[in-house]
Structure prediction request, 290 residues.
Amino acid sequence: MDKKSYEIKMVSKGIWAVNEYQMDYMYIVEGAERSLVIDTGTGTGNFKSVVESITDKPYDVVCTHNHVDHCGGIGQFEKIYIHGADIPALTKGNGLDGTISVFNRRRYSARGFAVNPEGSLPFTLDSFEPVDTSGIKFAEISEGFVFDLGGRSLEVFEMPGHSLGCICLLDRENRILFAGDSISKILILPLDMPDRERIGMWLGGAEKILSLRPFYDTIYTGHICPAPVELFLDQIELARRAINGSLKEEFLQADEFKGMLYHYGQAYFTLREENLKTRDYRRILNPEKY
Prediction:
C-alpha cells in the first residue's frame, strides 16, 4: 500500500492548510514580505520541509496553544512564538515530560491510526523521538501583538479556556480568523477549577471574539477547515446556558467521547477528566467534521 503524505490545499489567497492525516490542521499564511506558520502538528513527519516547499519567504512560527497536536513539531524550528502562560507545561523537563512528550505524541497518534486505513500512514509508534525544548527560543506573545507579513497583518487575541494561553489570530484585511482549538465541535475545558469558572473563562474570550464579528467571515481551526460561524454561535449559547443553569450535562456520545457532556446545537463541551481517559478515536465516523 502506498503511504500517505501531508495533504496540502490552498484554502484562500496566500493561505495553505496542511492536513496531518485527519489529526489536525496547520496553516501557512503568506504576505508580500514574510510568511507565518500557524501550529506545527504532532510532529509525525518533516513539516519544516512542507513549509519551505510552499513559501520561499522568510517565516515565523506561532502556536495557538501548547497541546501535543499543535506543538508536537516545534523541534523542527529554532524559534516559536507562543503565549507565555503556555510555555511551562510545554517545556517541562526540557520537553521530555511536557505536553509534547513522546508518550503524549504516541497517545494522540492513535487518532491517525483509527481514522486511516491500516498500513497507510508513513509513521509508527516507534517513529517519535524526544523533543529537547532547551534549544528552542520561545518568544512570548500576548494580546495586541501583530505579525506584519507585508500587506497582511495578523493580530493576536487571547481566548483562554482550552489552555491558559490559547490565542486566536485575526487577519482583518482578508476577513479571516484563525482560532486554534478554541472553536471546535467538542471543546475540551481541562483546567482545574469549578465548572462555571472554566466555562466563564472561555466565554469571556469568546464574547470578545464575537464582538470582532464585523471583521471576519471565515474561521479556520485546528480540526475544522473551515469551521461554520454557526458552530461558534452555538458554543457561546451553550456556555451562557451552562453558566445560568438552564443547560445541564447529559450522557452522550460525540465522536471519540462518550460520557457526560454539555450539548447545544452543533456544539459540545467536555469538562470531565474521565472523558479524556476513556476517549476512543475509533468512534469517529467522519474525521473531516471532527
The first strand starts at residue 7 and ends at 12. Residues 162 and 189 are 5 Å apart (CA to CA).
